[in-house]
Amino acid sequence: MHTEHDWITTPLTADLLRGALDVERTEHGLLPHRLPARARAQNTNAQLAMAEAQPSGVRLVFRTAATAVELDTLRTKRDYTGFPPRPDGLYDLLVDGVPAGRAAGTGGNVLTVDLATWAGEVTPGPVGTVRFTGLPARDKDVEIWLPHNETTELVALRTDAPVTPAADRGRRVWLHHGSSISHGSDAASPTAIWPAIAALRGGVELVNLGFGGSAMLDPFTARAMRDAPADLISVKMGINIVNADAMRLRAFGPAVHGFLDTIRDGHPDTPLLLVSPIHCAIHEDTPGPTAPDSEEIGKGRLTFAAMGDPAETPAGKLTLTVIREELARIVEQRAADDPNLHYLDGLALYGPKDAAALPLPDHVHPDAATHHHIGDRFHDLAFTRGGPFAEEA
């Protein structure tokens, strides 16, 4: 800890967090969760357990006149056996809604995953400190967006002036569910994931339930969305179902209906936007499963390949083309009785022409530039005049 400031330590409590559906007290501090305890208890999948505990879209928000802030955290960073260490997770600082700094995490645990078996081994590490200085010496709202791709336990908050919870700004709450693309995949920082870009431009409070590898139409996720406060809701669905070869068409359609029915049980009239997958060339007409390309792994590159047989599509195996057709059909059918249900074709966010200019580096996930592209497109299509999330005149 630096000594040139007279530090005040503020207890970390849930009322300082936004974007989390639950918080857990650990031996180290406060662990934000993006699924409530009831949902977590029904989950047996390690991938989802890891993803929901990574605080994508979660931020620490408070009011203060402090010019310096320190946040102690214990992170868990993910690396892959045989590959260079992944970049450190970043913390983005906003002051009164304006970007004001960025810092990398330090210390922490490392989870090393073997891509051949998907087994993981944790190497423990120490608590690290993130520090921001030079903040304006006036009362202001401070937001620290936590790393979207690292589990982050909040250990201590120190400032050189008192802290109080920030007032509710009366902004609409946008509840979004999706895959690793919504989670943030290879975005540059937590405010540079596409949902955060769209939310910040749209002036809404984001609750991001984008779960890497885990947008699977899980009923417990639908119930979490049913019970969460929301003024706007979107569900981006399809790519993980294909990646895992998790369903056939016979099961997929009813599962989508059930997911939407559950959300509607808690939000009968809320604008609800169903979004189909963005363009992904390997799965447009080829079913899953998806697997790491072994030849590319041998060259030290992680890319993915489609392992399914297109000849099985008539028998019900799912491709992205099939999923888009089915989602459009479901929305058209339901919209007759649900005028607040809307459909957005994912190809309008990122289509074949976009892929030519901004290719997916690993054939599945967008890079930093493409996150900005998708976030801007979503904002323009959903939040501006005529869009399903536009403010009423």
Terminal Cα separation, in Å? 51 Å
Biggest β-sheet, characterized? 6 strands, mixed
Radius of gyration: 21 Å
Mean pLDDT: 95
Shape: globular
How many helices? The count is 11
Class per helix and strand makeup: alpha+beta
Strand content: 25-35%
Query: How many β-strands, per DSSP?
Result: 21
The residue fraction in helices comes out at 25-40%
Contiguous uncertain segments of 5+ residues: none
Give a written overview of the molecule.
- It is a single chain.
- This protein has 393 residues and is α+β, with helices and mostly antiparallel strands.
- The chain is 26% helix and 28% strand.
- The protein is built from 11 helices and 21 strands.
- Strands 1, 6, 9, 10, 11 and 13 form a 6-stranded mixed β-sheet that branches. Strands 2, 5, 7, 8, 12 and 14 form a 6-stranded antiparallel β-sheet that branches. It has a 5-stranded parallel β-sheet with strand order 16-15-17-18-21, sandwiched between helices.
- Strand 7 (90-95) and strand 8 (98-104) form a beta hairpin.
- The chain is globular.
Q: Which keywords apply here?
A:
26% helix, 393 residues, 6-stranded antiparallel β-sheet, 11 helices
